[in-house]
Amino acid sequence: MEERAKQREAEMHKNTESLRNEIVQISKAIDAIQDKIKEHTIEIASCKTNLMESETEARRINNKLANAKEASEYLAKEKEILEGELELLNESKKRAELELLKLKEINATTAKSHSINTSKEHELSLIHICRCRRYAVCRSRWSPYH
Q1: Rounded to whole angstroms, what are the CA distances from 10 to 15, 22, 54, 119?
Q2: Sign of the C-alpha dihedral computed for residues 125, 131, 136 and 139 taken in this order
Q3: CA 109, CA 118: separation in Å to the nearest integer?
Q4: Measured distance CA(117)–CA(104) in Å, rounded
Q5: Which one, of 124, 106, 103, lies nearest residue 114 by Cα?
Q6: How far apart are CA 47 and CA 55, in angstroms?
Q7: pLDDT for the residue 41
Q8: pLDDT at 117 over 90
Q9: Are 77 and 84 in contact (CB under 8 A)?
Q10: What pLDDT is attached to residue 145?
Q11: Any idea what the Cα angle at residue 140 is, between residues 139 and 141, rounded to 5°?
């Protein structure tokens, strides 16, 4: 019996050593898994940060897009207004050109009628300035030298 007890004790010792080795291996595996979990946690945190930055950038881009859309609508309305004003200006220009043509016609007919009525009788003669000058007017009454 003692032998059996020794065998059992030896088996138990062997099993104990085997269990210790397994526990050490499991412990190492757990440490490796914990290290990987830490790495993944850091990666997840980095991804969350990137996601938040991307969401912020997306909001900023959406705001710019909305502003651009508003500006585009405003510019489209402004374009319509300016096109209307241009059309009015073109119409005014056409009317002014017609008025100018009428005035030119009137001017041409008036010039013809004046050229027919003008003759040498109606022309005024020019008097030379030297003949109008009076010598006495140039003298001063108070000047002793004149």
Answers
A1: 8, 18, 64, 157
A2: positive
A3: 14
A4: 20
A5: 106
A6: 12
A7: 96
A8: no
A9: no
A10: 60
A11: 115
Q: Can you tell me the distance from the alpha carbon of 28 to that of 25, in angstroms, rounded to the nearest whole number?
A: 5
Structure tokens at 44: 């997840």
Supply 80's token pair. Answer: 């319509």
The total number of residues shown for the chain amounts to 146
> At 101, is the pLDDT very low, low, confident or very high (cuts 50, 70, 90)?
very high
The Cα-based distances of 111 to 101, 108, 121, 122 in angstroms read 15, 5, 19, 16
Amino acid letter, 53: E
Both tokens assigned to 37: 């979990």
Task: Please check whether residue 111 is in contact with residue 117, taking contact to mean a CB–CB distance below 8 angstroms.
Answer: no
Dist CA 9 CA 2 (whole Å)? 10
Phi-psi region of 70 (alpha: psi -120 to 50; beta: other; left: phi over 0): alpha
| pLDDT for residue 70 is more than 80 | yes
